[in-house]
Amino acid sequence: MLKITAAISLLVLFTVSSAQGQYYLRGEVRDEKNNALSNAKILLHSTRFVYYSGSSGTFGITSSRLADSITISLEGYQPLCVRIETGKYQNITLKMLYSSVNLQKNKLVSVTRNLHPDDRNKRTLTGETYSSLVENEFISARKYPETGCAIHTDKASYSNIRRFLGMNTTVPTDAVRIEELLNYFSFDYTPPPPDSTFGFKSYLSDCPWNPLSRLLYIHASARKIDPEKIPPTNLVFLIDVSGSMDMPNRLPLLKSAFKLLVDNLREKDTVSIVVYGSSVGVWLVPTSGIEKEKIRKSIEDLYPGGSTPGESGIRTAYRLAKSQFIPGGNNRVILATDGDFNVGQTSEDELEKLITQHQQSGIYLTCLGVGMGNYKDSKLEILAKKGNGNFAYLDNEKEAEKVLVKELTQTLYTVADDAFLNVSFNPSVIREYRLIGFDNKVNALADSLSEVEGGEVGSGHSLLAMFELVPLSQSLDWGHAEDGLAKVTLNYKKPGDSLGRSTTYISPLAYTKFTELPKSYRFATAVTMFAGILKNSPFMKQVTWNDASALASEAQNPQDAIQAEFITMIAKAKKIYGHRKRKKLLE
Known about the structure:
Layout: H1 2-19, E1 23-30, E2 41-44, E3 49-52, E4 58-63, E5 67-73, E6 80-85, E7 90-93, H2 98-104, E8 107-108, E9 110-112, H3 117-125, E10 133-134, E11 139-140, E12 146-150, H4 156-166, H5 178-183, E13 198-206, E14 214-222, E15 233-240, H6 251-262, E16 270-276, E17 280-288, H7 292-300, H8 310-323, E18 330-337, H9 348-356, E19 364-369, H10 374-386, E20 390-393, H11 397-406, H12 408-412, E21 414-425, E22 430-436, E23 440-441, H13 442-446, E24 451-452, E25 455-458, E26 462-471, E27 486-493, E28 500-507, H14 519-534, H15 545-555, H16 561-586
């Protein structure tokens, strides 16, 4: 009898055990715009096991129950608890948190306040726009006196243009971002007052390409961090070691660049390395900056191969950065790649969403591009801006040294977040104005919900914003006026602080002859003319290569090697574009 009872018990136990996991709970997770949400965390209440949605937002979970309940969570979205049943495919929608909704909106580089949507749409359609950027046009100061632009420390456009010209080829117009060319130079840095984060100066002068216009130069300088007070740093090098990096100007160049950076690390700094290529993983565990030889050897041992799973690499790097997060420190992921993402989320929109999930984590993102074409350049530009960071293009070892050694504090140490320059013009003296550079993308201009995206400002960064102005009267006495020419307000937040701050400056209505401007401002004008020709700007049709070259040569600082190099770039461009024009004429 006992044997029979035991046999029945075993049979019941076997039957129950075989029933475990016989039900399958299936579904998908999407946002309110019906976009698939990958990597959403799914907690199964009956077992407390955790699962994740796949790359297309789908999930499949075994359960011993006909019905069960789950909690789904994803950074940037409201957690959701739902009851699900076997046999029903679950379509689950997560709502974005309010702050994340703002992050997901199209972001503008510059904006004119109160400009009506109808007027804005017209601006995207006028003229022949062949690239995704739309050049800023003249705006009525009486109707729309207030305008502004985001402050970014990006300089990638300059070195990318240098690469194109070095290959004796023309430059795609979308690769020419005038503000980044101006950012590349250090124009007359002036330390701010002791109690301020930013200092200002401005000049009003003639416009070389239009005698009826004037140029306004607004120069803002960010405070330099005291080297003794630089906080500890948590750096994660995220290095692309895929097959496409197997070229001399890609992975070998990055190895040299990172080894240069290592020389500046301190004992209190921490470095980790994440690689992605044939596999994704932690190549170097968190290591003190004092162990320089260990870090250098780890960098030197990198080798290329495999596909480019950039999405997985980014996720891994941010997880590692979070695990080593230093409160009050400088926490940063440095992504180094040729931008050739071909596995996982690869489109600009998908990558943008991925980065915005981490934007408020206190971890900054620096992007270092190598060996890229213009399309890939745009991907890294978006990632850097969405990741509260900056973007540089390394076309040679000298550029790597400039970015990661000479300008290390500007590149890696932040003094202001969400920085935005607002300018309100005096309509009693200005008829129209045009912001030079800071051009917006067509899709951002077309979105009526677009907002301006503030930028990260590094220690000691110097920003030069230029406006072309049309005065109310050509006979106007450009002397002094009590109201000034414009009110300039720089809005920003200190790193790790949610409190908005601002600094205000009144630009005086004081005219300076162009020939009497400081040389650095005249040189900046030559840079702007050079960029205008490359962009085929309708506002600079009369400007020639000779004009830009003559002005740059006259205003050059003989001790500045970068300015000397720029003059050779103008000569190269003249030869390339001049030959191209002659060829067309012969045809």
